[in-house]
Amino acid sequence: MINMKKDIFQAIADPTRRAILTLLTLQAMTPNTIAEHFNSTRQAVSKHIKMLAECKLVKQEYSGREIYYHLNSKELKGLDTWLDQFRKHWDGRFNQLDEVLRNSKATKK
Amino acid sequence: MIPIFQTEYRKDATNRKIFMDRTFDAPLENVWNAWTNKDTLDLWWAPEPWKTNTKSIQFETGGHWHYAMKGPNGQCHWLIVKYISVEQQKQFHGKDSFCDEQGNAVTGFPGKEWKVTFTAVEDMTRVKVELTFESEQQMTQLIEMGFEKGFARAHTNLDEILKKQE
Description:
The complex is a heterodimer of chains A (109) and B (166).
Chain A: H1 2-13, H2 15-26, H3 31-36, H4 42-54, E1 58-63, E2 66-71, H5 73-108
Antiparallel strand pairs in A: 1-2
Helix pairs in contact in A: 1-4
Chain B: E1 8-12, E2 17-24, H1 28-36, H2 38-44, E3 51-57, E4 64-70, E5 76-87, E6 91-99, E7 112-121, E8 124-133, H3 136-165
Antiparallel strand pairs in B: 1-2, 2-8, 3-4, 4-5, 5-6, 6-7, 7-8
Helix pairs in contact in B: 1-2
């Protein structure tokens, strides 16, 4: 599980893969259509797509003979859940600091 | 009247960074002291119900803060922040890591870098924190389990590492 999630960060660490994700927010696309947007070889692009699929950021769907790639927004949301947890932790810490600062003011007066 | 301040959070997952921006209703000097003075740090640093106990602190460039985080069930974990640069009442830059009671950093466990800047805004103080995680794994461990559990897991890992070093 952890390794799979680790790939999410590797996946979005690459500018080409980020561009692919951005493209897919517009609409689902076949690998060929995706590749047309890049200067790199089709093979290179398909490697990137494969990695995105492996960590489930994109999903495959068949339509006739064509494969279409969709964004998997559920996985992308995982990144936000993490920030929420982080935020809770720090909100708590900073509220404690507010309290400390209020008390130090009170004792000075 | 007590003003309520919100913390703004921004993440940059690509660069493994988190930014925080928060204003405190106190003069710069007090806020700076709260971040740099051991008696004050001990009061607020640990997330409830944990407690912070400072063993030693030299808040200066090249100095360190060595402290224990004590849990409600008797857990005790040591951390050390090494101060890379300190500019009085302006900013400090440090790097934290888990360590033992003597302050020897635990190898094999990722730390994170801290850049904290302080600016006076009238009689209040704006604090900006930039955290840089050392590894993707460190960030993702937290995603996977949520912060609290991630923290607990980090400590379990630490226990194991420390046991191996004994």
